[in-house]
Design goal:
The chain is mostly helical. The chain has a domain of 87 residues. The protein is 39% helix and 6% strand. It has a two-stranded antiparallel sheet with strand order 1-2. It has a two-stranded antiparallel ribbon with strand order 3-4. It has a two-stranded antiparallel ribbon with strand order 5-6. Helix 5 packs antiparallel against helix 6. The protein is globular.
């Protein structure tokens, strides 16, 4: 696939009705050139279009992951542990995406692309299986036991699913693993000319996260820590991705698909992501989404990264910032909260931020190399009896970057941070907590924290004090949409 840009794949179906006779005579339909699974998916370009369409299902204008999900992870305001129908959409999005991926795999297995170079076809199948694994990885973490619909599953319209269609969580992970192992073995390496296209090392990075998740709650299959360590290490050592040395531009719309971005939701001017006004201070006329919890922001270590990731101070007019003394601090603002700065000015240009009708230019990361560094540190520590020197070094690489002073529009970033670094003298438990904390700081607002909360089993704790009164152990899984639940059953407690 040339690139996973934000494309809406449009199938054009030509239907010619051959009508004979007059009103009482039989109507005869003769489709001419109708697109079906038998007449499509016959070339790599057609298959690539379907894969691109699957990503569009997850990330399209006004829909999907164009805004950070307000899940109860303790970072964003507005989350609730009173889970309801608003959580059904993730089930729908991901199964729709899977429905666009499976025919590609089925067509390849049917031999429909055998006239094309074998390596190209294997890479194409690797891309499809990587995307399928990504979708199922999200679903199994949110909903637990789920149906695993693949290219061999009978049409669910004629053969409805039933309770036994829901596979155990470990079985779903086995299938996710199999897809990713194939992808790692068959996908091409990173190509700088198509930076948004997933590579074999993207698949291996996701595989490391799958291993790490299996090693923690709910499965607690601790032998997977070593597998996660080795997969993450291979990505760090052998891939072409590299950590950014300047946090001031890491999330800038002028620096999309940079060396640290491994896989992202893409957007372009034809199909823009959410306008910048969707998030940002009320003083800018925004729509008041993605406000940050004050207690979480206050607990964040004082360092340059804090002021580059969380919008704590802002000018009344971002087109003319003026002296910092005239800026607004969140405590004196209309809403009284900070904002998720990764997706606001100054990472957006003033026009991107303030124009309510145009594209924001945001490209949302799904996997960054910094995440892989942190996965390595956690896995290496937990695979043994405590932190190794390399685990400490890789964790400290992220901490030292966060503490490093930089020149930016925020004067607070010119002073070095004071977050303590890790050491090999730390206990295994203390080092593990240090990694968890660093993931909380570094990966904030990137679709990742909630899954860490689930595998760390701290859902109630991170929702103190405001949301925890709604906590129930059932909240570790979302409810299955009622219509589907009538066929396959509902999660306990709903």
């Amino acid at each position: 696939m040339k690139k996973y840009t934000h494309i809406l794949f449009k199938s054009v179906v030509a239907l010619l009705l051959m009508i004979t006779g007059i009103s009482c005579q039989k109507l005869i339909e003769a489709p001419q050139g109708q697109l079906t699974p038998q007449t499509f998916y016959l070339t790599p370009a057609q298959c690539e279009a379907s894969l691109a369409g699957s990503m569009n299902t997850l990330y399209s204008t006004w829909s999907g992951y164009t805004g950070t999900p307000i899940w109860p992870d303790g970072q964003l305001d507005g989350a609730s542990l009173a889970l309801d129908g608003s959580n059904f959409q993730y089930w729908q999005w991901h199964y729709k995406a899977i429905a666009q991926i499976n025919p590609v795999i089925g067509s390849i297995h049917a031999g429909n692309l055998k006239s094309y170079p074998a390596a190209d076809v294997a890479d194409l199948e690797g891309q499809a299986r990587f995307l399928r694994a990504f979708n199922y990885f999200t679903l199994v973490r949110l909903y637990g036991k789920i149906p695993f619909i693949d290219e061999n599953t009978p049409n669910t319209a004629s053969t409805p699913l039933k309770p036994s269609s829901r596979l155990s969580v470990d079985t779903v992970y086995d299938k996710i693993e199999a897809d990713l192992v194939f992808a790692v073995a068959n996908m091409y390496d990173y190509n700088a000319s198509t930076p948004s296209r997933p590579s074999k090392y993207v698949a291996e990075g996701l595989l490391a996260k799958v291993y790490l998740t299996r090693a923690t709650a709910p499965l607690m299959e601790t032998d997977n820590f070593a597998k996660a360590r080795d997969a993450a290490d291979d990505v760090i050592k052998n891939s072409s991705y590299a950590l950014s040395t300047n946090l001031t531009t890491l999330f800038s719309t002028s620096n999309t698909n940079n060396s640290e971005d491994m896989f992202c939701f893409q957007s372009d001017n034809d199909y823009p992501a959410m306008p910048g006004l969707a998030a940002g201070p009320d003083e800018w006329g925004s729509w008041d989404s993605e406000t940050v919890k004050v207690l979480w922001a206050q607990a964040y270590p004082e360092q340059p990264r804090k002021h580059l990731y969380i919008l704590l101070d802002w000018p009344v007019d971002p087109t003319n910032p003026g002296p910092f003394s005239s800026w607004i601090n969140y405590s004196n603002s209309n809403i009284g909260t900070p904002w998720a700065e990764k997706w606001t000015w100054p990472n957006l240009t003033p026009s991107q931020q303030l124009d309510g009708s145009g594209p924001s230019g945001i490209i949302m990361p799904i996997l960054r190399l910094a995440d892989v560094y942190l996965m390595y540190a956690e896995a290496a520590n937990m695979a043994g009896t405590g932190p190794t020197q390399l685990a400490v070094d890789r964790l400290n690489t992220i901490i030292n970057r966060a503490n490093a002073p930089v020149v930016s529009v925020f004067p607070q970033t010119s002073t070095a941070g004071t977050e303590a670094v890790a050491t090999t003298s730390m206990s295994q438990a203390d080092f593990n907590q240090k990694v968890w904390d660093e993931r909380n700081y570094e990966l904030c607002f990137e679709f990742d924290r909630y899954f860490d909360v689930l595998r760390e089993k701290v859902l109630q704790q991170v929702n103190l004090p405001d949301n925890a009164n709604d906590y129930d152990p059932k909240d570790y899984l979302f409810p299955i949409p009622p219509l589907d639940a009538t066929f396959i059953g509902q999660n306990p407690g709903y």
